Amino acid sequence: MSTANHTGGFHHAHHFDSAEHQYESSKQGIWLFLVTEILMFGGLFVGYSIYHSLYPQVFHAGSKQLSVVLGALNTVVLLFSSFTMALGINYVQRGLRNKAIIALAVTIACAAIFMVVKFFEYTHKFHVGTVPGKYAYTEELSASGEKVTKVGALLAEANKLSVVEREHKLHLDETEYEHLTLLEKTKNWPLFFGFYFVMSGIHGLHVLAGAFLIFWVLLKVIKNQVGPEYFTPVEGVGLFWHVVDLIWIYLFPLLYLVG
Amino acid sequence: MAHEQHNYLNHQKGIWSWLTTLDHKRIGIMYFVAIMSFFFLGGVFALLVRAELFTPGKTLFSADVYNRMMTYHGAIMVFMVIVPGIPAIFGNFVLPIMIGAKDVAFPRLNLMSWYMLMIGAAITGSTLFLENVDTGWTFYTPYSSIKTGLGVIPMVLGVFIIGFSSILTGLNFIVTTHKLRAPGMTMNRIPLMVWALYSTAILQVLATPVLAITLLLLIAEKTLGVGIFDPQLGGDPVLFQHFFWFYSHPAVYIMILPAMGVISELVATYSRKVIFGYTAIAYSSLAIAGVSFLVWGHHMFVSGQSEFAGVLFSFITMLVGVPTAIKLFNWIATMYKGSIRLDAPMLFAIGFMFLFTIGGLTGVYLASTGMDIHFHDTYFVVAHFHYVMVGGTLMALMGALIYWFPKVTGKIYSDLTGRISWVFIFSGFNVTFFPQFILGNMGMPRRYYDYLPTFTELNQMSTFGSWLIGTGFLIGLFGVIYALLKGKEAGNNPFGGKTLEWTIPSPPPHENFEKTPVLTGGPYEYR
Ligand code: HEM
Ligand SMILES: [Cu+2]
């Protein structure tokens, strides 16, 4: 389709009238694709709102479990990365190759920071037993009749210890202990984490995909395949990245703050 | 002839040149080969399902095997044949030519869509050997999520990928229609087939993502037990149905709108008249696409949704009848006092109108909440959707095949073969599905392995009809092979069509047009 060996020698594909024509068409295609992404997340948002209105207490108890600090940190990181991505596009358009490379590299670094923070959030959740749906229940104990949640089992263990010991042995501080107690008292709480893991998980996959795409255009910049004459891939990837950020801007308050 | 003409078929040679082609015409042919193979497979399952129902109780297989065959029949036919069918095969071939373009906007994406269909089909098909699925094509929870085996996961994953193929094709067609029209080809001069494909593309882009997320949630439900559809965790299995039908009702228009586009072309060409009410036909496609998003609840009248929702969905559903009727009346007005030629494609077009009308009218029965309580999940519904989907889409597909065959291959499809095929398919179709209306009304439930002895005669009639349909399609296939081997040279415009594809050689040259055409009038200027 598009052949661009170096920025000066870009030829538009044979079925377009001009480079401008090709650019306009590609841009429309990218926008349509982004619409499908938003619609796909739209399904999740609809499901979330329905259950949130049905069981406010479940979502309240669940969101108390999440670390607003880490969520906010990630929000800032993504917002900043949107800024550096926009800068990157601008530098490519103006032919400022080195600056563009730095801006894109910083954007990838932000994506990496985001994923690392997510990794710590997830592993901590698994550690304290807040996992989605059926995994919230412990196998061994459920055999004995009543179903016991992992959170319940952890709290039972914690109650046998003094506050200091609890923090030392189980890595549960006082506020966390309170949150888990609240969770334990709430019927159907795993539902919230079903949404949490699916929504943030699919978003996380998009962050990874976005990082790979940015890396791909970064290589193009390094190899001089894009520049002031031809920057469609950079702009397209940039738009994708902004949508990924935008979705997080909605996810953060929904999951972490609406309690 | 001394020197062979240079065209898209001999532009490059070898299987590899096909598998890597970026030419929309070749990609159309690759879709044809692939989708017809799926159709064959789905058809074999259909014949087996009907054969099992020849007698009450066990005829050939166990209930388990029956459930699986029914599932594969439905899933293959819907997701791999009727949804991609006309747009992917004929849309790919004719859409760019009809608007005077050299190709679709994104040729590589086009090839990728084909590969995605192949990969999706392979994953879905692999479950035939790994772990058969028995959920029915709708994958309703909680059966699919909690009860049945893990085969649902690859099955649904395959459909998810096929959905992507559909989205990308739609996206490509929208941009192509917006950006690649030849000079003078305003939106109000594009052929009605293009209008239909354009409206379909909008549906593909807007509805399919919802299917995608639904299927992902089903996978998440099955692997992680996230609880969104599981009442034990506070979820609700009916939410799955809402999501599913939010896609799948628009999807029935993804299936039928392209067929309506084909019928508009056929009616204009074979009546040799200016199409009556071009604008009305064109914009009714958009209207159908729009309304189709608001009616999904008619699949759930008996799911316990509120009475108010039922009434509302019933009302909006009936509204779809308006743009549909507009189309039908305009076709008939076009035929009125036209010099109609009853060639095979026109027979299929008339067959379409006949069967689709029956399908549509029975839809109105089903859309009346009171009657749906009687008919829901009976054979009446089976008959209804086969009348619209098979009687509609497959009739149009056969008509399109014979109509554009000369353009695609340069050879004429034997009209006699086409007519014989039509007789078998049309009569067989009615013999198969009309009794099912009666069976449904008598209370025979759908998706059942067994039935009461009183239903035997009508079921046997239905099974007998399925053999007629099968024969009809085999004759149609024979026609393709015969025409390829022995068909007469077609010439540029054997049927006197007026749209742009008939102004270029058959088969078309690699870049469609020697010189970009410039349009000065509308598409159907007969008299
Ligand atoms: C345009 C072509 C149409 C197609 C391809 C189509 C297809 C289908 C399919 C596949 C089903 C069965 C779904 C299942 O497996 O549960 C169905 C059911 C239904 N259709 Fe249609 N349909 C069409 C037009 C219409 C129209 C025009 C109406 C109403 C005016 C209508 C009303 C209904 C209703 C109410 C049901 C649900 C019946 C029940 O399950 O009780 N359909 N249709
Ligand atoms: Cu429907």
How would you describe this protein?
The complex is a heterodimer of chains A (259) and B (527). Chain A is an all-alpha fold and 259 residues long. Chain A is 76% helix and 0% strand. Chain A has helices at residues 19-54, 56-65, 68-94, 97-128, 139-142, 150-159, 163-170, 174-185, 190-222, 232-257. In chain A, helix 3 runs antiparallel to helix 4 (97-128). The longest helix of chain A is centred in the N-terminal third of the chain and has 36 residues, at 19-54. Chain A is elongated. With 527 residues, chain B is mainly alpha-helical. Chain B has one domain (25-502): Cytochrome C Oxidase, Chain A. Helices cover 67% and strands 0% of the residues of chain B. Chain B has 16 helices and no strands. Chain B is globular. The relative contact order of chain B is 0.11. Chain A binds chain B through residues 1, 13-16, 21, 24-26, 28-29, 32-33, 35-37, 39-44, 47, 50-51, 54-55, 58, 132-135, 187-188, 190-191, 193-195, 197-198, 202, and chain B through 22, 101-103, 105-109, 167, 171-172, 174-175, 178-180, 205-206, 208-210, 212-214, 216-217, 220-221, 224-228, 230, 233-235, 239, 243, 511. The complex binds protoporphyrin IX containing FE (HEM) and copper (II) ion. Copper (II) ion is lined by residues 249, 252, 298-299 of chain B.
Question: Helices, strands, pairings?
Answer:
The complex is a heterodimer of chains A (259) and B (527).
Chain A: H1 19-54, H2 56-65, H3 68-94, H4 97-128, H5 139-142, H6 150-159, H7 163-170, H8 174-185, H9 190-222, H10 232-257
Chain B: H1 15-19, H2 24-52, H3 63-82, H4 85-98, H5 107-126, H6 143-147, H7 152-179, H8 192-224, H9 237-271, H10 278-291, H11 307-335, H12 344-367, H13 369-375, H14 379-409, H15 415-442, H16 456-486
Helix pairs in contact in B: 2-3, 2-4, 2-5, 2-16, 4-7, 4-8, 4-14, 5-7, 7-8, 8-9, 8-10, 9-10, 9-11, 9-12, 9-14, 10-11, 11-12, 12-14, 12-15, 14-15, 15-16
The complex binds protoporphyrin IX containing FE and copper (II) ion.
